[in-house]
Amino acid sequence: MPPEKSSPKNAYRQAGVDISAADAVKERIKVIAKGASRPEVIGGIGFFGGLFHFKGYRDPVLVSSTDSVGTKVILARQMGIFDTVGQDIVNHCVNDIFVGGAEPLFFLDYLGLGSLVPSQVEQLVKGVATACKAANCALIGGETAQLPDLYRPGDFDIVGCIVGAVERDQIVDGSKIEVGDAVFGLMSSGLHTNGYTLARKVFKTDEDPSVLNARYADLGSTLGEALLAIHRNYRPVVMPALKHIRGMAHITGGGFEGNIPRILPKGLAVRIDRSTWQVPPLFKLIQKAGRIDDTEMFQVFNMGVGLTIVTAPEHAKDIPRLIPEAFLIGMVVPEDGPSRVMLH
Fold it and tell me: pTM of this prediction?
């Protein structure tokens, strides 16, 4: 049979892009975004750029970050659960600017889709809006792009961009860290948004997605539920102790070695005692199933510690008092050797 002839009204849709469906989704997004706003937002979703009336600071410094949730989106698609990765991307970005002391102001998301499925997009944006509202961060805009030549039907990617602010004299950048400072850790909720390419290979989830439904007693959930655990937003629990903190490191891709040195002044390192916390079962399961050595596990994953805090010795007693879940994991020492993070 000859191919269906395209008409001026349906040629783009036959090519894989449905403008009318996109317009309908945008209307849904406007409603969802209204629940994640701030008084400083002018107008709302729909204009070519998000408008935010910046005020309330003496000597402000803007802090921005952009990121994605990586191949965690593949697991979300396989399980048909999309709101969690929407929350992941917001919380990841909030943490990235908060380690500099910044308050989140507004957030923009980008969705790249192989095909536009309204219910899928709605779940993703609801997740973004939920996390933005919890962080008092305005969902000020975004982009939903149908890219059938880049993504297969059902595939998608989600990316976020956040802008926050901090008073110039309150920036937390690690510059005041000294030898003898105490290092505290806060537990993660799981893998957060890193190491999923390795985890997927270990469990062979691409070849057999049904393994995600397997329930493990140690996990207290299915494998899929544990892997989709939402990335924590650390700002609410850490804020009470912020004035006592000299530096914070968000433990993301690269683990301890890839992130803690980013806040250390030249010539300094940290010594971390691995016996100060119990590595959660999910990481042990990955290590056993993949036959991965300790060194690589700590290079790829957060191993149960999603945020580290550095404080002066005289304030070491204040951290667990103000952040009850924080626990001492090490101290700052002179740099001596090739690694600036020594795990013992």
Answer: 0.93
